[in-house]
Amino acid sequence: MSFTLDFISPTAAPAADRVTLFADVILPLPLPRLYTYRVPYELNDNVVVGGRVIVQFGAKKTLSCIVAAVHEQAPKEYQAKYILEFIDDAPVVTQPQLKLFRWMADYYMCTIGEVINAALPSALKLSSESRIQLHPRFSREESEYPLSQQEEVIVDALGTTEDGKALTFTEVGELLGIPSFHKVIKSLMHKDVIFLFEHTADKYSPKVVKKVRLAHHFVSEASIEQLFNTLSSKPKQLDVLMKYLQRVPVHQNEYSNQNGIEKAALTSSPHLSASAVNTLIKNGVLEQFDVIVSRFPLEDEPTAQLHFTLTDAQTTARDEIMAHFGEREITLLHGVTGAGKTEIYIDLIRKALESGGQVLYLLPEIALTAQIVTRLLRVFGSRLGVYHSKFSDNERVEVWNGVLSGRFQVVVGVRSAVFLPFDNLSLIIVDEEHESSYKQYEPAPRYNAREVALMMANFQGAKTLLGSATPAVETYYQAKRGRYGLVSLTKRFGEAGMPDIELVDTRKAREQKTMHNHFTADLLGEVERTLGRQEQVILFQNRRGYAPVVACQDCGWIPKCTNCAVSLSYHKHSHELRCHYCGYHDSMVSKCPACGSRAVKTQGFGTEKIEDDLKIMLPQANIQRMDLDTTRAKNSYQQIIGDFEQQKTNVLVGTQMVTKGLDFANVSLVGIINADSIIHYPDFRAHERAYQMFVQVSGRAGRKGKKGKVIIQTSDPTQVIFDKVIRNDYAEFYNYEIMQRQEHGYPPFMRIIKMTVKHVEQGLGEQAAILLTQELVERLGRAAVLGPEAPYIFRIRNFYLQEITIKLDRAHTALKWAKEQICAAMDVVKDQKELKQARLVADVDPM
Questions:
Q1: Is residue 94 part of a domain?
Q2: Residue 511's domain spans which residues?
Q3: pLDDT at residue 201, rounded to an integer
Q4: Which residue positions form the known binding site?
């Protein structure tokens, strides 16, 4: 799409009065600097910092971008192009956000364009390839807004809502034959005629409910009586009519008929005939119509208040937190699993709202929002917003705008919620603050939402509460040093005690031949006894799929991913081999392609295999699985958790998802199937992660006054970490771990930046990594630079990988200088002609 600029030439004005403004804009691209555009003179009063504008970038591409600054200084290196259009007359990105985004770009060694690209929902990012489509609500006959001639042209080109036709911005420009058409699109959006989407996969699909109502000519009392007489020989249809009139008393208020009732209320009733309902619709007695409803359950629920009283222990903890907030900006709430931290959070949120501030409540997993939102909704009603990646883009925009307008004063969300446009935060709660799920890995910015939340609170003068039963070592270190406040809850809520933890030796069980597939007799027997008491079980296996490895028993052939240096895992449900790194999949083989043998078998086990085996061994049990494969659909988390809460299922098999903060009253047994795979991992945080995972999943057992039990299957019960888990002794675990970190120079005593060099050619990748290492050593010293070396998985998505680890002093000035040196070293590599295709990735504070 090309634009000419003469249409915005400024009108004549006295030279003495003329002020030429320029705007520095943030393009949603990985560019190292901001670009400056000229503001058309007649639009000087329209430009707002934080608002979106349309600009031409390159020869043909047009993009929406964010205005970062307005000034009168023309760029010296190039002639500034004019801004094409202004989208907003008020900021969509606030000043506190811009300050935070600049910090993120600087700290995480990326560009502010990459931060903006990650922060904004795609419906707020327009480009020449953005698309428009008719809104499902739009009807020419019923529209309350008149359409201009240009708007009529667009609507005609889009056809009808049934056609589902879409136009790109480029096609709209060509259709109208004018260079400036964004105002036309904006007007159509305001009139609810069209909606925007960025990719075909993002097309807006509204939630539609089918409803029925009595045809308007039957609403009068006389007509209803006549209708009864007509249907007297048709009892099934008469039953439907009676049911409708019970639900919608039209004889008392005929206007109540207008809204009708959901068709499902009649067709799904076991006492009514669905065919009778359809016959009444066909004969014109009932009218069927569609209603678009909100996807947000919080808008559909009543705002009934949840009243509770804090226990003495909770009250003491709350008061200690408030006292610490008087002296420090950050406080750690270290409470054992099941101690009732959520009630304390709710009480603190209430106080924050009473003072007129906003609250952000961060959770590490979407799965947790299903339980937490229900509780918070009963307290805060429509003031509560929810933000996570399972929402459609249009829903995310709705929450974004709701925060801007003040409609949502409390937001519950996962890590991306730190990007929302808060400007009056008074409290941030980071629940399960130790979780690695707060870390973004790909693409840039590779941020940790916990650290971003701390800086966000600092910029806005808010307080931050970090909560966990197993705090990150770095967090507890800051609390012990006195930089953070520290509050402890050492007992579970109510009468519940900590669960009994039992270690079971799998090596001994195999020698005694008492293993049943991957279950020891101890664990399987305890599962049966728990189900016999009508209680529930959670089983944890830290690997999804049916089997991690498929191999030929004769020649040893193992199917490998074509893009990554990993073996393919077998997924029985889809009967395919799948790569868990890039998504590559292939059909399961029955004959070895290397030697022709049919002795191709699966080895190892994942959650799918556990589920399959249990269904055979425990046919009476209702078993559900919760892992990445079963939770891809939008509402699958809520469905699985809801079924388990309502005890429709009594055994939940899952990966890490089941370890994080879920609260089930009837769970009395937790089984950890294979503890060894978690402990033995080549990473300095391996023992910390293992301890956290064991304690967290154990915490799901024995709530609401019931004594729980945890069985951990391991081939090495003598591992030191198990003793600390059994005694729930975080302090002892921390003391041991912090000594190891100090001795070997790991966080919190040093900062780590991991450099990854990626190249499609292995030799050039190694060459680039060696050159980068040499440049880093020259600038930072040999002691600070480790590597390069190929990681355990050395090829992902057809890129060969080399890693370099940089250890740096924690001083702010030293860190800033070191990052400058790292960037300079990266530039040296990029300037080598033969290495230009190498991708250099800096990950600050890797997890």
A1: yes
A2: 500-544+609-740
A3: 40
A4: 552, 555, 561, 564, 579, 582, 592, 595
Q: Which residues belong to the annotated binding site for Zn(2+)?
A: 552, 555, 561, 564, 579, 582, 592, 595
What pLDDT score does 572 carry? 74
Q: Which residues pair with 209 in a beta bridge?
A: 291
pLDDT of residue 839: 95
In this prediction, residue 302 carries a pLDDT of 42
Residue 10 and residue 69 in one domain: yes
The three-state secondary structure class of 794 is coil
CA-to-CA dists, residue 579 to 19, 56, 610, 755, angstroms: 59, 40, 20, 24
Is-contact 114 445, C-beta < 8 A?
A: yes
Based on the fold, state whether residues 148 and 250 are members of the same structural domain. Answer: yes
In a domain, residue 250? The reply is yes
Q: Do 644 and 533 sit in the same domain of this protein?
A: yes
SS3 for 48? coil
In-domain check, residue 746: no
In this prediction, residue 169 carries a pLDDT of 79
Residues 94 and 139 in one domain: no
In whole angstroms, give the CA distance from residue 73 to residue 246.
72
pLDDT at position 545 is 57
Residues 239 and 356 in one domain: no
Does residue 495 belong to any structural domain of this protein?
no
Q: What parts of the chain have a pLDDT lower than 50?
A: 1-13, 15-16, 199-205, 297-304
- Percent of residues in the chain assigned helix, strand, coil, to nearest 5: 40, 20, 40
Number of domains in the chain: 6
Q: In what order do the strands lie in the sheet with 576-578?
A: 569-571, 576-578, 585-587
Among residues 632, 721, 706, the alpha carbon closest in space to that of 670 is found at 706
User: Do 310 and 450 belong to one domain?
Assistant: yes
pTM of the model: 0.77
Find, among 781, 740, 775, 755, the residue nearest to 846 by Cα: 755
